[in-house]
Amino acid sequence: MPRNSTRRRMFTRVGVGLAAVGLLAACTSNTPEDDNTEPADDGQQNAASSNDDPGENVVIGFSGPQADHGWLAAINSFAEQTAEQYSDVELRMAEGTNDPSAQISAIETFINDGVDAIVLLPTDGAALTQVAMQAMEAGIPVVNVDREFSDPAAARATILGDNYGMGVSAGEYACQLVAENDLGDGAVIAEIAGIDSLPLTQERSQGFADALEACGQNVDNRVAAEFTVESGEEAASNLLQAANEIDIIWNHDDDQGVGVKAAFDNAGRDEFFFIGGAGSANAMRWIESGEMEATVIYPATQAGDGIKLARLIAQDRGLSDLVQVEVPRRIVLDAPVVTADNLEEYLPMGFES
Question: Which GO molecular function entries does the Swiss-Prot or TrEMBL record give (predicted)?
């Protein structure tokens, strides 16, 4: 999908590939002068192996929130699936919880057990910062997933989705639809947000507004839901009652999108292009059947990527596709748009709402 070069702050979005598919080779002579001659060293370090090759056995503790909707269930599932790929990883899963105190207790247990690394998607980043610091001080590297700690020193590495970038991707795609369908300056664009008090919702909305502004558009109608099916249906019903005609709707979350879609069907409204968010299997099936235009990925694979990073850090290895010999401290994943044209590529990552 073409990107608008005028967008604001969008150059800060960084994607880092985690697949280990090659070796970094140092340049050396193939014909040494004699048997005692050492190969020339140009200062580059040759990666010993692919990251997926077995290494030292490690124990990784994982803790995440309660899987009370599809995206969080997928977080836990990808963590388990990823660990199972490696014969050198023993994964210890704490019971999912929305209680910060219970999650703190789980991390304390990991510390007392002396695990080699911890992957943590905190119920509350600020509340879990202190116990993550305790793990780091005990020599146990922590990989922080999705919700950041209040002190960056509490994590050896942080891996995040891109909420602002998610809004940008949705807005850029909306701009593309406006241009391709000759909707003009009078295009009516609506937004169904998540919980408005959350920074992630604010970032998504800001990215959407910034991308629309870059092509001369704006949000005409906006409602907020609560990331649940019931709230999505209620918010979408209110939106449809307030606007007799809409050209494009972006819904922030595909889990609440089940209710949003029900409201559309109940009202018999389908005159608009429907864009979703997060990348659920439901949304991808709707795209496949022509009932939805697109969805913007907010990767449920983050915890799986966290397991990969924790394994390498605990084994004192870096990413073999990078010249840098250490695992990066911060990785922000991309927020691509899934349409009928690239659906097959993303179907394996779709989660059930």
Answer: carbohydrate binding
Does one domain contain both 124 and 199? no
Decide if 28 is inside a domain.
no
Specify the DSSP class assigned to residue 125: H
CATH number of the structural domain spanning residue 68: 3.40.50.2300
58-91 per-position pLDDT tens digit: 999 999 989 888 999 999 999 999 999 999 999 9
CB–CB of 221/191 below 8 Å?
A: yes
Q: Please give the full DSSP string across 241-282, using - where no structure is assigned.
A: HH-S--SEEEES-HHHHHHHHHHHHHHT---SEEEEEE-BHH
Print the domain residue range for 217: 163-297
219 shares a domain with 148 = no
Q: Are residues 146 and 16 in the same domain?
A: yes
Q: Which residue has the tokens 């983050």?
A: 302
- Determine contact, residues 114/84, Cβ cutoff 8 Å: no
Domain count, the chain: 2
> What is the Cα–Cα distance from 14 to 34, expressed in whole angstroms?
47
Q: In what order do the strands lie in the sheet with 330-332?
A: 89-93, 58-63, 117-120, 142-145, 157-160, 330-332
- Do 14 and 143 belong together in one domain? yes
pTM beyond 0.70: the answer is yes
- Each residue of 110-136: pLDDT tens digit? 999 999 999 999 999 999 999 999 999
